[in-house]
Write a structure and sequence with these properties.
8-stranded mixed beta sheet; about 15% strand; 14 helices; alpha/beta
């Protein structure tokens, strides 16, 4: 028997591309997305999309509305008098998630769902699973998985502190496969992995060799570390035809996780639409 897994990357506002692609897939799939997959796994912005699909059961264009300009401007609203601390206020982000998820817990997931975060005390990845931690509020898990260092403050759940799951695995495809094999050890596993685009701009090695901590931060070292492509390379090698990756370079798009300009958001949405043109038929056949 074949089990189908949906894995969704982190990437801040670039999650709009992922949501756009998945909304198009939902429009033509024989069943709604929450019924097309046996397991849904997400990190950071991908974790928010995963929760929206499995718990809120958002479909078609409603999935894209999470990334409305109004929501994004609220979430990425900088502190007025910031000197130290995170760039954005965690309480504003939590308010948006509360408005969406209300009192829903992970147990409301229509599909087994797993969301990654990073446990600061244990210094390792944390996997919030709907089938073992169903009592946890979805809004709190959404806040934890998206607590990107320097952008948002760490989030506390049951006395433990968490930051963005992308710190350890921005692309959760390997974690998704490992968990699927635990759940269904004797079944074939097929994984549709959706990215958020990657920055292909080269860095000047001659200049970089002289950089210190400030220069590396300005160059986006956090994004460089989070956007490692190693998971995709390994998955492609191991899973072969049972793996389909939807992703591309960021052409005409700012690579930063928090660029909320109308021009950039329009370009990100256009990227998702282009993914549908390129990967739509393949994806539909893959899960059918």
């Amino acid at each position: 028997m074949t089990k189908y897994v949906l894995s969704i990357d982190g990437g801040g506002v670039r999650g709009l591309a992922s949501a756009t692609f998945l909304s198009e897939l939902d429009k033509v799939a024989p069943k709604k997305l929450s019924e097309c997959f046996d397991l849904i796994v997400g990190t950071s912005t991908g974790g928010i999309i995963a929760l929206a699909i499995s718990i809120l059961d958002l479909q078609k264009d409603d999935l894209v509305k999470i990334y409305s300009i109004e929501n994004i401007k609220k979430i990425f609203s900088p502190f007025r008098y910031r000197i130290l601390g995170s760039k954005y206020a965690g309480k504003v982000k939590r308010k948006v998630f509360k408005d969406y998820f209300k009192a829903e817990t992970l147990s409301a997931a229509k599909t087994p769902t797993m969301i990654t975060a990073f446990d600061l005390e244990k210094r390792r990845v944390k996997m919030f699973k709907s089938w073992t931690e169903g009592y946890l509020p979805a809004r709190r898990v959404a806040a934890a998985t998206s607590a990107a260092p320097t952008y948002f403050p760490a989030e506390s759940i049951e006395g433990q502190w968490y930051i963005d799951g992308a710190v350890s695995t921005n692309n959760p495809v390997l974690i998704a496969y490992a968990e699927a094999k635990k759940l269904w050890p004797n079944d074939e596993i097929k994984i549709l992995s959706v990215g958020t685009g990657y920055n292909s701009k080269r860095l000047d090695g001659r200049r970089a060799r002289k950089w210190g901590s400030i220069s590396w931060l300005n160059a986006g070292i956090i994004q460089i570390l989070m956007e490692s492509n190693i998971e995709h390379v390994i998955a492609q090698s191991l899973f072969e035809e049972n793996y389909l990756r939807v992703d591309s370079s960021l052409s005409g798009i700012k690579s930063s996780f928090d660029n909320t300009s109308k021009r950039n958001l329009k370009a990100i949405k256009f990227l998702g639409e282009n993914w549908w043109k390129k990967f739509g038929d393949k994806s539909l056949n893959f899960i059918s």
